[in-house]
Amino acid sequence: MKKAAISSLVLLMLLSPGALLPGMPSPDGGERGVATRELLPPSWPMIGRDPHHTGRGLGSPEGIYAPYVRWNTSFTQTSYGAVMGNFTPNVYFNSTSPRPLTGLVFTSAGTLYLLDGSSGEVAWAADFDSSDGIAGDDFGWTCPLLQDSDGDGRTEVLLAYPNNTASSRVVLYEPSLERTPGGWVWPQDSFRRAEVWNATIPGEARYSSPVAEDLNADGYDEVVIATNQAVFAINSTGGEILWRYNLSLPAGTLLSAPTIIEFNSRVKDVLLAYIYSNTYNLVALRWGTLLYRKSIPLGIPPLVGVNFPVPSPVVGDFTRSSGYEYAVVIPTVNANARVYLYTVAGAEVWNVTLTGGISFSTPAVEDLNRDGWDDLLLSTSGFDQALSARMYCLSGLTGEAIWRRVKTLSSPTLLTFPSPPVVDDIDGNGRPDVVFLLREVLVALEGESGAYLWNLTSPPRDLRGAPIAGEINGKVFLDIFSDGTLISNELVDLTVRPQEIYVSADPVVEGSEVIVSAIVRNLGPSVARGVVVEFHDTWEGNTSLMGRVVLQSVEESQQASLQWTFEGAGTHTVTVIVDPENAIKETDESNNQAMRWIDVKPSFPDLTVERVILYRGDGAVVDGEERHLVEGETSLANVTVANRGFKKAQVIPISMYINGEVVFSDSYLQDIPPGGLFNISIPFTVDTARWGYELRINITVDPSDAVQELSESNNTYLTTQQVIPSYNPGAHYFLEGYVYHGASAVGGVRVEVKNLRSGSIIALYTSSEGRYSTDLATFEGGFREGDEVSIQAREGGLRSEEVVIRVYSEDVGRVVNLTLKEVPFREIQLTISGGNDTVGVNETVTVALTVRNSGNLPANVTLQADHPLLDGEPGDGWEASLSEEELHLDPSEERLIILSITSPTAERCPPGAEVSVRVSALCTDEEGVEAHLTLNLTVRRVPGFELKGLKTSVNYDPNLPRPSFSVSLKNWGNVPLRLHWNVSGALSDYLVNSEGSLSLSPAEAITLYINTTTTKALPGDELLGVLSAVASGEGLEKSLVLSMKFVIPDLTFEGGVLLTPSHPILGEEITVEVTVVNRGSSPSSDFYLSIYAGSQNILRERIDHLMAGGKISKGTTWKPVAEGTYQIIAYVDPDGDVIELDEENNYVNVTLNLEPKVVLKRFDQASVRPVLLGRGEIFIVTLKNEGSAPYSGEVTLRLYLQGEGGERLLQTFTLSVLLNATEEKSYEIVWTPQDLKEGEVTVILRLEGEGMSGSSSLLLVVKSPPGG
């Protein structure tokens, strides 16, 4: 464990508001980050923040100076703590800009919640209570755990919760979140979609929250969790149980969360505390093996009625020794809390009694007195003083109190205890302080002295969960979260933006007084008061203070304004500084200043010809491509003069030149303000005799430079235009159109086309289709460019309007439609054309409507359908819509419109009810022209029901309670139903209730449970049945298949009896181990395992239930003390407690022989040389005990001479020997050769006797002694 200064903790939270966190997706859907097994900052991954339970906060650039409730939720937190982590890599930002997400995770009853730390919104939730299909049976007490087990950068959530008092589930989720413009969305079955793995463990996960740490230095964290049955280490990547240490405690036993302490760089131990039988117990484990246990009686009065976790051991560097120590809080010893400090090996360093109170507060660890060693912070609540709570700061070196503070409660409860404290920099001085929660108050104390910093009383509800601290909502200040409530500093964030600095004049002209304003915004939720705003003007390197404005208060935004005169033309920089002295604490001090560049203009006008438009004689714009100026025609130049300067112009001289000749010149006394416009129209006649057919047109404002301007270079407009002759022989102009009477084109109507210049007339008649057409080239004498021509149709007393046009050959022609006039009118008709007259349940029906304009004028029509009425009252859930709502109808035109009516569900759709919809057609061209109709429908009688299986497949195990089937029946129709149900098939004989009847009102749904009874079927058999439900009198029937499979456990052994060592010797300790396996198809109940060595029972142990296919290894040690042959036999379920598939495979045995065995290994001369007759020779004999027991006694050796006639006994030797098992020794024997011939001879030495063996031959050279 490394100690971190508060300043370094702050660095974890320093994230730029616009920056992407590591692993955060880019706006274009890029990478999600580099894989890592460390949670991305910020993170508070487990209860107590780390596996050592130090309670150190994450820090923040600023503390909490004026606390307030930032936000709170309606959820009641049931977990003993919450955790937070960076969930940004888990988010898909759908059509929204990416931003960091600090997620807060806790449980409320049967739901796991993940809140957005910035707003308190639910970003994701998992209803784990529904994971088994049974609502209300699962409840989350323990604190969740965050991790990244697969290293993909996405944060995972591990949750442990009890199914019941006998077993619990451990589930790993990887939430996938989606942020849309409408907020956070997630699937309702997120507990299934997000599940990575789950595991079932024995016992009740009620008080002990999981922690994670790499226990064996393999680079992967193990999850450590405890139930009343055992302590487990679980593989964080797959959920496999790596080891377990059995506790076998009753349900309801109070436990602590596990604590991890480092024994050395590669070994970490697990500490767990629990209270059982009015005794405090602590166990220390190393990879599932007990290192030691400590037990301390709690004394009198006994601890009853408490439902809090036991305070967790905490780890720190408290003394000057080289290793780590851990501290434990015993809630009560004779009604007083007691604190012990132990070394990593379990040796007591000191203990101290805190009189007058008990404690269920896990301490926090930090060096508060700045002596270089960790201290302890913990709180107590008194039996005798239930109105007060105490916070202690104890020296880690001695246990002595550095300071103590007492807080009085206004509405106490005797067994309500203060929360575990959290250490962080509260007052912003860079040193650690302490904060803890009571039922109604949040208390902050200065860390070194214990002085009160502040209290926050009466939050929205009682705060009891273990708090977490850090920069949670991204507002720079420290935040504290507990029980769905976020407490932060009053958030003020003053800012000013360049685009919100305004000047009253545009443009700004030097020497003119203007008003300079700035919008000061407060981005925080708290009101800022006494806000000073400074304005500065910088021009050509010189800065002037324009003034200071004091805003009394800024809630959201406020405008600061002052008057100022800009001296000198050019670029001025206006700088606005909010709170220049930093007198107001803000979430962001970097956004208090903004600058805007003001272009100050010199005080001159600037006249320019902004635009010139040339018009042909008919008013058409001359573009020089499709339209041109015409010879001899009076045309028009529309000239726009603009003042682009910054002083008004009072005289506007203007001249027009064609091919260098002045055709117009005048001066206008007209004020044009800066930015103002002045328009003048100059008529001129195109005189080709003077200028030819190409005109160079020049229009100049202020041609003599009489007006002093900013620029004289923008005063002239130039263009060159081609002129077409007034008469073009062979030119054509095509005129055509239709003549209408009412809405129909009329044939045989006379149309007169007249040249108003020449008086020439073309008379023609419309075709049978009502169409006319002519070429104006057929006029007598043709036509000239720009001639005016009139067109009119006549038929009896009817006339069309006379239409006059000007014709130009370059226009090619024109379409002119004529209408014979009579009295104009509009009329709308609305009729039903066909469709449905009844409607069912949750159904859409359509009706065709016809809308007709029966008048002789076009009509614009708006259609609307009123909300449907059900028996004269507004129909709840009914809807009506039209295929079109806006129509344009020509005279006599009609349009088909579809009216759609949608009915709701059954309860709002009674059979026989009358549904009416009023449809209106309104003419928007003329008030009062409208049509209406009412459509009536009858609701049909619709019977119908749904049969849905909830639990249709069960297993029957004679060792377990009988299972039940469950199905759902729902009446989705609009009539009551009487349903009869029954189960047929082989399964029906094994049901308690195989048939029945029930009634369902419309929209009513029930759950039907079908219970099973005793059966004698064989394992593996499967019984099937068909559940049928029939609606009486309605002809409706539904069915589904039910299945019951019979399963049973089968306990036996895998392999034989394993002895370690495999070849033991007498007196040596032997490890005897067996592996029990369940080869059946169902979990077993608890059973005993016995091992015998001969008649001695060396092991009898009760084993928790074993899952189908599961196995467990158990062993013991045994030291044999006597020689002999032993039968070692292991029995599983020797008492027959478990009903099994095979009761004959419940034992396994091995035979062990423990006896000595002496063997002759070698026979050699003491020195290699010829042996002399008659002289004693020394030989070396090597014996070895190859048996498993020692040998002490005599051995017999016989020496033989090997010859052609066989062997002859030469001598017998008797030796006294002592040989331990496997021991080898050498002995000397002396033999005097007699009666042997000289030369080479072979002698054989044999070891003889019961349990002895071995022989060895030796080639000798025999000689007579010298002189013999």
Q: Features of this protein?
A:
single chain; 1268 residues; mainly beta; Methylamine Dehydrogenase, Chain H; Immunoglobulin-like; 8 domains; seven-stranded mixed β-sheet; five-stranded antiparallel β-sheet
Question: Overview of this structure, please?
Answer:
With 1268 residues, the chain is mostly beta strands. It folds into eight domains: 67-489, YVTN repeat-like/Quinoprotein amine dehydrogenase (Methylamine Dehydrogenase, Chain H, 7 Propeller), CATH 2.130.10.10; 495-601, Immunoglobulins (Immunoglobulin-like); 609-724, Sandwich (Immunoglobulin-like); 734-814, Immunoglobulin-like (Sandwich); 831-939, Immunoglobulins (Immunoglobulin-like), CATH 2.60.40.10; 945-1041, Immunoglobulin-like (Sandwich), CATH 2.60.40; 1051-1154, Immunoglobulins (Immunoglobulin-like, Sandwich), CATH 2.60.40.10; 1158-1263, Immunoglobulin-like (Sandwich), CATH 2.60.40.10. The strands form 23 sheets. Strands 65, 67, 68, 69, 71, 73 and 74 form a seven-stranded mixed sheet that branches. The chain is built from three helices and 99 strands. Mean pLDDT is 88; it is low at 1-37.
Summarize this structure briefly.
With 1268 residues, this protein is mainly β. The protein is built from three helices and 99 strands. Helix content is 1%, strand content 50%.
- Beta-strand content: over 45%
CATH topology of the largest domain: Methylamine Dehydrogenase, Chain H
Fraction in helix: under 10%
Q: How many angstroms does the end-to-end distance come to?
A: 90 Å
> What CATH architecture label of the largest domain applies?
7 Propeller
How many structural domains are formed by the residues? 8
Going by CATH, what is the homologous superfamily of the largest domain? YVTN repeat-like/Quinoprotein amine dehydrogenase
Structural class: mainly beta
Provide the gyration radius in Å: 52 Å
Q: Find the count of extended strands (DSSP E, 2+ residues).
A: 99
Number of helices: 3
Shape: elongated
Which regions have little confidence, pLDDT < 50, spanning 5+ residues?
1-37
CATH class of the largest domain: Mainly Beta
Main beta-sheet annotation: 7 strands, mixed
